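[step 3/7] fold_predict: job queued, chain A
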Amino acid sequence: MSLPSFDIGALDGLLKRSLPDLDTDAAALVQSHFSSLGTGAEAWVADGIPRIAAASREQTQEVCPFCAQSLSNSSLIGHYRAYFSEAYSALKTAISGTLKAINAVHSGEGPAAFERSIRVAVQLREFWGRFAEVPEIVIDTAALARAWKTARETVVTALTAKQAAPLDSYSLSPDALEAIANYENLRIELTAISDTL
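[step 4/7] structure written:
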């Protein structure tokens, strides 16, 4: 009987991660422009930046892939390139990957597998209790499930906020740290019971 833990150090490092090479004012300018364009603007511009080279192939200068006008006078294009750099893409991928991993490990099949392992342990205890002295299995699965869910939700909330604004620095809130600590204590108790059995 075991439960997965949360790597607070790795989560906190990811939440605080930014792009030191990207000028804060330039990032603010780009984000302000995105908000003026409406929903989905960041994805729309991100899709267009790699298309500049193809649109400019037979031109004497770089042109906009959407309107074919020259980009030589654009004050935003350099900021866009910095914003949509490989480091920015890597950061977004890391956030998205961590969020998926947390959801895969700490929800879905995870809680169901935990419930099954408890049920199997109780059945084995009943069987072997006829032949040997086996300690009772006393686990408040409802409390453990609530603590697990609360910890997962606080982590998912923090990662979702970071995903929405990857360049902002975040930290796990005191409530999140408390929820994770509560879950971790119950997880350690469970491991001790499992080891005793």
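[step 5/7] annotate
The radius of gyration is 25 Å.
The mean pLDDT is 85.
exit 0
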